[in-house]
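Today's session is about reading a structure prediction critically. Students often jump straight to the picture, but the first step is always the sequence itself: look for stretches that repeat, for charged clusters, for runs of hydrophobic residues. Only then move on to the predicted structure, which in these notes is written as discrete structure tokens rather than atom positions. Here is the chain we will use throughout the hour.
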Amino acid sequence: MPVEDIPPTIEILINIDGIPISKSSGDQFWPILGKIGNGRNQKLIFVAEAQELEQNGFSFKGKHYQFKLSAFACDTPARSFILNIKGHTGYFGCPKCIQQGDYEGRVVFLERNAPLRTNESFRNRIHEDHHNGDSILELLDLDMALDFPVDPMHLVDLGVCRKLLLTWIRGPLERRLPKNLVEIISARLELLRDYIPREFARLSRSLKFIDRWKATEFGLFVSYIGPVVLAGILSSRLFNNFLVLHVAVRILSSNKYCVDQNEYARKLLNLFVSECERIYGSYFIYFNVHCLIHLCDDVLRFGSLPNFSAYPFENYLQSLKKLLRKSNQALQQVIKRLMERFHIDEVSPKTCYDKRQYRLKLQHDSGPLLPNMIRSSKQYKELHFGPWYLSCKIPNNCVYLKDSSVILIENIVSNETGDFICGRRYRQLNNIYD
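Below is the predicted structure for this chain, in token form.
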């Protein structure tokens, strides 16, 4: 990013989480990671540095910038730890509202209109049962209630979506799907692997491997392929309940709709939670399901779900773990490898792609071509622009146009008049939710 485009205040999204460094011991790293959060992308030492930056800002290439911690993206145990509050299994564990949980075999949160916590009530200990003690983060210029959002990755993907799937395949008999239906879902998931473009980090896998599914696989299911693989499998009541969650997550994940349709998404999530209580019982309304009703407030403050998700930090945690060669002197190893990488980056600047530029690759001559393109045309199989990629082959050849047309790309052509994409348009489109 050019220096002149850098905003005057640099906002930082902070993540704190633990990662095991060895299978044979309980040793863990708890790195404090940061990501520039402008737009909506040990403790004592960190707090002291943050205070200094908040008060004085910093200078870069002759220009002075203000500094602000925009939010902390943490999973529930990490958030409880750094705030020194009750955890998700506590009666007063909800970080957003003041309700007292009930015990229904485990702690559940059945109220959906409880008063919300505020920065003042947190700092003044108005609700003492919520606190274990003081938090060192109170020294910073933070809203202790609003600047600690619920993390979409742990809440929606690893939390609610995973819980629904496990309920359908291993839950109580009255809600468990027959084995043959589970096998049909798995077969559909395997079939869809060939149609998932490379922008998705992982392909869909059979439910036989659900214990090994990663967060991105649950995210793929709840946001994209769930309505396809579950159609005709679940009862209409269960299926419609899942669709309510699916639509709400899609709205809140969209930069275009997350604010304009926020109130509608809020109604959908409240409907989902209330229907879950009727369908699965009050036992199902545990911490993650309850916190869905607070998700829309965080979206209004921080933007769409990807803007305050822990996904970027989880990816970096894994890269830290890969720097280790042995469990002994783990911290020293990581510091040395990071310093080596820092010096390499200094002499090997990263390539920056202009979003307006694209590259054509893999020239061929196998067509098809339109009649007016036959002469002096070069043909290509791939088109690259920034992180995006289009191809003439499945699964990266299907595009959705602004006029709502769906095209299957068959060729990419370049000649003296310009560059063109040749493809076939679907004549008939059906609503996926019908």
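Discussion point for the tutorial: DSSP finds twelve helices and 14 strands in the chain.
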